[in-house]
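Could you join me in thinking about how sequence relates to backbone shape in a protein? Label the sequence line and the structure token line clearly, so we can match residues to local backbone shapes. Once you have written the record down, we can walk along the chain together.
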Amino acid sequence: MKIFETHMHLDSQHFDKDREQLIKKCFNSGIEYMINISVDEKSCNASIKLAEKYNQIFAAVGFHPHDVTDYNAKFIRQKAQHQKVVAIGEIGLDYYRNLSPKDVQKKVFEQQIQIALELELPIIVHDRDAHEDCYEILVRNNAKNVVFHCFSGNEVFAQKLIEKGWFISFTGIVTYKNSNMENTIRLVPEDRFFVETDSPYLSPHPRRGKRNSPLNLQYIIEKISEIRGTTPKKIAELSYNNACNFFALSR
């Protein structure tokens, strides 16, 4: 069973003690590809360094909405042209924690979308309590290849994204009792979703409360297969193929 980890932060200090051993375990467990996602300048450099070390690890570069006051457009444009960078992300809006001014979040989100379009790279969106503003900015800028990572909207918002031809990515949240994600999981077409862990965050049940890692993708895959009435192998295969197409990687 081939598995694609589309969103992780293995450069995090949470992995400093066992990063190399964990990566070997991931590849031995059936994980074929992993994308390490950036949130600021430091993590952009770390993600690229990690991708350079492992053939099957790739990087996304971008400034998270929490970090947009430090945004450096020249830096992102330069790093985005590295051969192991496959997307701009994670970028977007976060009105839940609201650690950066909303007007700055919107401005930097738009600027990073423009870099993605200029370089013909996919866009990985962070959207927390900012659904309509994220959607409006993406539409206004004619964004093409888009995934809403760690999807947190309802099925009505999911349908809007699907109609634009965009993608939805599911995390361990789908395994939580209060997730309210079942209708969205049933709604999303076979060719419009991925799975991700967002490691080291959002550990799925029954690993909740512990450090998350790509090894826990199995719990997310199993839950989605249960809700959709199919096999884990089928869900893993669909997500794998969709992600390969999205990030332009060979199957």
